[in-house]
Amino acid sequence: MGAEVLPLLIAAVTGRALAASAARAGYPVIVLDCFADRDTALVARACRPVATGDAPRLDQRLLLDAARQLAPPERSSGLIYGSGFEGRTGLLARLARGRRLFGNPPQVIEAVRDPARVFPLFERIGVPYPEVRFTRPPERAGWLVKHPGGAGGARVWRADAGSARGGAYFQRFEPGQAHSALFLADGRRAEVVGFNALWTGSRRQDRPFLYGGAIGPVPLPPAVESAVRGRLDSLVRATGLVGLNGLDFLLVGEDWKALEVNPRPTATIDLYDPDYPDGLLALHLRATQGELPARRRRSATVRGHAVVQAPVGGVFRPSFELPEWCRDIPRAGVRFRIGDPVCTVHAEARDPAAARQQVHERQRMVERLLTDAAANPAMT
Fold this sequence. Notes:
The chain is α+β, with helices and mostly antiparallel strands. Helix content is 28%, strand content 26%. The strands form four sheets. The chain has an eight-stranded antiparallel beta sheet. The chain has a four-stranded parallel beta sheet with strand order 3-2-1-4, with helices on both faces. Helix 2 (38-43) links the parallel strand 2 (29-33) and strand 3. Helix 1 packs across helix 8 and helix 4 packs antiparallel against helix 5. It is globular and about 50 Å long.
């Protein structure tokens, strides 16, 4: 008999994409996230929701208790984390204690997520970015207020509408198309997996800049692509980033400006994982050990996904069926309010415009299904 393969522990606000990628390479996983969705359970040895109340925020006590019960250090092969630890590096350090950490350590996260450190770093390595202030601007119109520790736009408001609590900073709002680079790093250099176009989309007035979805790969002006690739190498050398990471930036014509670094696998891994027989998680593990893959030709398939937010409140009933191109399917009995994330829809095409059109059509279709089901309980 072969030696037992111990599971990896995955902890994130949502762990489904990471778990699905692990399954491609045959890695057993234990997933602790905020949702424990149906399709996460299908690819995990075990999964458990560890959210704070109804909010998509990891609960410290529930997370640490579940990790101790389901994947104690001596019974797991390591820890992989996704979103949810921005501004909570102390929690990550506690979770990683005694476990092999496949990802950036807390001190690297702090170096790229602390605005007082990352923007001076951008200055030193020649990364352009929108004007930033650490004191309230005299005229707040045209500025955003951002609170460190958020992810997916959850803690971003217009400065003339949102309150600025301690630790907040102000960034000038600039027109342009939001983009991101998903990249692998080995502590010395970066290898771009793909460039993506992003958009926001929120039904909640208190969360106007929530992540709405993405398509990728998308082409960039050659000069911009070359500049971003070069600056990513500089960023990795300066910080020691490893594994899968993301850089969000604005594309303004032939110029670009960086917004933030996400020092962990991002939601856009969904757009590229099918292109890798063993999944991107396997490359993430290797990159954390100092091994980068060779540059690949850009995929001929463009993929997109979008977050479906509840158009009405309701309960996800056992008999309610979503189309096969949906992911992050809620467990039966899960309650949702208007604006809560319900699932994601996915599409693929031969060009970015077609992929984006298809994913938005599917998003609207699921919204109609949810609205009809709420109006006609007999349907579910």
